[in-house]
Amino acid sequence: MTVNVNFSGNYQELVSPELTERLQTIANKMNDGTAAGSDFLGWKNWPSTIDAELVSRIQETAKKIQQQADVLVVIGIGGSYLGSKAVLEALREPFKSATGVEIIFAGHLVSGAYLKNLMTYLDGKEVAVNVISKSGKTTEPAIAFRFLQDYMEKRYGQKAAERIYVTTDAEKGALLDVAKEKDYARFVVPDDIGGRYSVFTSVGLLPIAAAGYSIESLLSGAKRAEQELVEVHTDTNPAIQYAILRDHLYRAGYPVEIMAVFEERLTFVQEWWKQLFGESEGKEGKGIFPASVLYSTDLHSLGQYVQDGKRMLFETFVNVESVGDDLVMQQAANDSDELNYLAGKSLHEVNGAVQQATAEAHLSGGVPLITLSIPALDEDTIGYLLYFYMLSCAYSAYLLDINPFDQPGVEEYKVNMFRILNKPGY
Amino acid sequence: MTVNVNFSGNYQELVSPELTERLQTIANKMNDGTAAGSDFLGWKNWPSTIDAELVSRIQETAKKIQQQADVLVVIGIGGSYLGSKAVLEALREPFKSATGVEIIFAGHLVSGAYLKNLMTYLDGKEVAVNVISKSGKTTEPAIAFRFLQDYMEKRYGQKAAERIYVTTDAEKGALLDVAKEKDYARFVVPDDIGGRYSVFTSVGLLPIAAAGYSIESLLSGAKRAEQELVEVHTDTNPAIQYAILRDHLYRAGYPVEIMAVFEERLTFVQEWWKQLFGESEGKEGKGIFPASVLYSTDLHSLGQYVQDGKRMLFETFVNVESVGDDLVMQQAANDSDELNYLAGKSLHEVNGAVQQATAEAHLSGGVPLITLSIPALDEDTIGYLLYFYMLSCAYSAYLLDINPFDQPGVEEYKVNMFRILNKPGY
């Protein structure tokens, strides 16, 4: 398995015949379409059934974007940007640019300074835009697209249409209408896949391909996950194991999960994970609150709280077994910093010691620990990892008797906002 | 006051004569040096007593760095980097460079790829280094400095010493010894100011000045805060008010505080705040767990959990009254995105509506709300804000009967790590 799960406690004693039966029932209901929210289970078989022609079309479009532009501005919010952002950051080596175009996100905030300065930044560069919105009416990205569409038309005139790519509903919606009218290239947000499960659709794939990464490898990792994680094997299926552990820890009085990473590249996988689990489970007064830390820097920050603060936390470490570039500690003539004892060790080995030391320290402080190990940070592994999380999240929410696929609470601020802003009809 | 506090509940009924007396006792003990951890209260009168010659010397050194270098690599972890990082990010307008040198942080992680690629990145640029460590033996920055010192000496030979700036203990320590031996310019980490309270010392000021920001304005904001917030006035002192509210909410069953910002520039003030409060309060099985969100993007992520998840959260909004650059929504010929109702409104106004709408939504979902309002994002305001947090944090921890100024839990992973790595003596 590409993801391996370890637990600081006794996992075996958490697995009862009743629990296994509940999980099997959940699996059956997802398969036969009777689970809550089954209309949004399109992500489940997506990696094995994605249209090869769609993948080719995305790759060709990505090539075209790379030829015509230096920068691709990706307009989206929530699931329309977190998936591609997570993959891009996980794959990007520090201080290196991607081989394709530079990706800049917009429409995830309402900020005049951000948009205004972005447009100034774009002035010296060739630009393309990918606007991603199922309805075309979500306020934040719609505002950003208004300004950027105007910018593109002023700058490129009629030719702007060749540089604007729309990812939206197949059949209806404001953005689809504009795309048809202006003859923008179009990609589809499937009806049966919600935003936070959309990273393997055009929503995530077009920006990732444009940046120069292999969406074939990403999808093949996801497909392997889909196939390997299909059976409810409590002994060997890491998605089932992670769901069982989370459910157990939540019920045992640990309502806060801290995802700890030791590689800065994974910090947006953390943000994606927060949306996935927080938005899927945080309903009806229930759910684990997802938080994140980057060690070892945060060992000198939230580490103190984790070690000794209020006991309501469990941690999930993401362990990356092998990193690419590395450095080896050398013997120094003057050992005033007292680091010569590390000579011959790679920094990845030292980082591994930080991880093991932290695990022991936090365990002794009363923090249960789950460890997810992955082999590397490449497209295939990240594809596998994200599918693993999506599947495990579904089981985890169903174990709480929560529909993982709706987000009723997101509407409330929108309705208030429309009223405050005097939108007609509110 | 530069920071104004608002609360969704009835603040007045939380203030009793007993509580006021407790707070006055805390203030008295801090003043006469009998409070727990009083050896580390040097930050309290620092803004009003900082040596003008030190400020001049930092400014002159910053100018020298700007003349000799394109990039200043700042090596530090925890309080040795979060303060300057928070200020730099808060002041930096999106897509704009600072007027001074580029600042890149190192030594906050153990990553060979990061350091190796950083050195490649530096190859085409003129470089200076500021290494910040009280003892010189903290593993992460010590490793980074070993590699970067070697890099600088290979690249600049004897002249490397003119480009390396050391911020360390005044009297002793490994880094001081090296600085003396090599004749590096030196700045002092005061003995009576801990890392998370050190932003107004040379630790924070040198990188901030080198980046081109006004440390005089930063310090004058902090000094005004020191003077305005000195008295225990529960009606008018925002530091006292914030401490009272946090203490009340913690005891009322809300152990998680979410600091919500609506400006991306404040996300590292959030990281600094997490260290300040988490490391000061998270002891003896007590303390509020500090978490953070960036709205409106996270309204499409953790927003669902905040609205409907497990009820243990309160929120603290940071409201910025005025931003600099902005854009105004225009009437469009084709209103297919249905945004014409916003015509004439600035994006800052729309963002204000998002904030008000979110406050109402989350309140109706059972999330108590504190709002901290600040006028702008400039040096003076940020200086005031950070001092406000530091002072309020001290009161808040003392109200929990916690010493705000130690961090016993940070040592545990270090001891384990030295053992695992076979450091002599462990």
UniProtKB/TrEMBL annotation, chains A, B:
Associated pathway: Carbohydrate biosynthesis; gluconeogenesis; Carbohydrate degradation; glycolysis; D-glyceraldehyde 3-phosphate and glycerone phosphate from D-glucose: step 2/4
InterPro entries (UniProt xref): G6P_Isomerase (IPR001672), Phosphoglucose_isomerase_CS (IPR018189), SIS_dom_sf (IPR046348), SIS_PGI_1 (IPR035476), SIS_PGI_2 (IPR035482)
Keywords of the record: Cytoplasm, Gluconeogenesis, Glycolysis, Isomerase
Pfam families from the UniProt entry: PGI
Protein's cellular compartments: Cytoplasm
Keyword Secreted annotated: no
Active-site residues annotated for this sequence: 279, 414
Reactions mediated catalytically: alpha-D-glucose 6-phosphate = beta-D-fructose 6-phosphate
Signal peptide as annotated in the record: none
GO molecular function terms listed in the Swiss-Prot or TrEMBL record: glucose-6-phosphate isomerase activity
Similarity remark: Belongs to the GPI family.
EC number: 5.3.1.9
Protein purpose: Catalyzes the reversible isomerization of glucose-6-phosphate to fructose-6-phosphate.
Matching PANTHER family: GLUCOSE-6-PHOSPHATE ISOMERASE
EC category name: isomerase
Record has Mitochondrion as a keyword: no
Record protein name field: Glucose-6-phosphate isomerase
Family matches, as SUPFAM superfamilies: SIS domain
NCBIfam families: PRK14097.1
HAMAP family in UniProt: G6P_isomerase
